[in-house]
Amino acid sequence: MKFAQGLTAFNLILLCSCEQLKEFSSSELDENQTTTDSSPIALKNNQSDDPVKDDPPLSKEPPTVFIPQPSTPPIENLAPPQKPETKAEQPMFSDELLKAVNNWQSIPLSVFPLKSVTIQQAVKFVAKAPDGQVVATSIMQPGEEVVALGIQGSQLILSPNLSGKMRGIIALEQTDFKQGVAYLFELRKKQREDYELRKSTLAKQSKVKGTTALSEKTDKTDNSLFEDLPIPGDFGHGKFCICKVCREQRLAATGSMK
User: Fold this and answer.
1) Largest CA distance in the chain
2) Which one of 8, 43, 72, 79 is most buried, by most CB atoms within 10 A?
3) Dihedral through CA 202, CA 203, CA 206, CA 212, nearest 10?
4) pLDDT tens-place values along the chain, 258 residues long
């Protein structure tokens, strides 16, 4: 009887202990769950682990908008094409020229009056009355241009202009007179060469067409070597250049033959 009562008491104690253990475990489990859910660290970890909730931060800068720019056409070079440069061609004291002027000892009268003669030293010009009395004087400085009216020995007779009444004298070597004569001589040669070329071309054309060639007429090229030619002038290559470009410009400027 006592044994049965003791066993019953033992079972009651054991049952009470189990109930207390169960309540203790449930309480501890609830406490842990609450701690885990409310912890900032746990919340942070949970957010980083969830790919749906991990959105990128929004930028405060406005989005870049691409605006297409109109294409710029290439700039064309509007400068006119430059003509090829022509070399200057200065007249020479050829053997033909020296023969024509007898080595400067007998200059043809057809050379005079020769305009645009540049003096290299001062020249005094004098105007005289019929009785020989001096009525006017003038002085022209080196570098100025005068007109050569004739020659006496080795001196040129000068005038300030073509219609001037005053006269002066200067040594031939103190002017560019010789260069001016060479210019006229070589210019006439080129004129004759052009004339012969034109005549030959016309003859060939007439032969092909069965017509009569250009008749031989008195041409400017048949005149004196020094007459009816344009005075010299600087058109970029110097005063006496006889290249094609300078001759054409001189013709356009003066209307004289080239």
Assistant:
1) 198
2) 43
3) 110
4) 555 555 566 656 666 555 555 554 555 545 555 544 444 444 445 554 555 555 556 556 666 666 666 666 666 555 665 555 778 899 999 999 999 999 999 999 989 999 999 999 999 999 999 998 999 999 999 999 999 999 999 999 999 999 999 999 999 999 999 999 999 999 888 888 877 887 878 877 777 766 555 554 444 444 465 666 777 888 889 999 988 888 888 888 876 544
How far apart, in whole angstroms, are the C-alpha atoms of residue 106 and residue 32?
A: 140
State which fold the 110-175 domain adopts.
Answer: SH3 type barrels. (2.30.30)
Q: What Å distances lie between residue 125 and 111, 112, 134, 225, CA to CA? A: 22, 19, 10, 30
Looking up tokens 């908008």 gives: 65
What the block records as the tokens of 197 is 């070329």
Q: Measured between alpha carbons, how far is 122 from 72 in angstroms, rounded to an integer?
A: 64
Structure tokens at 72: 């710029």
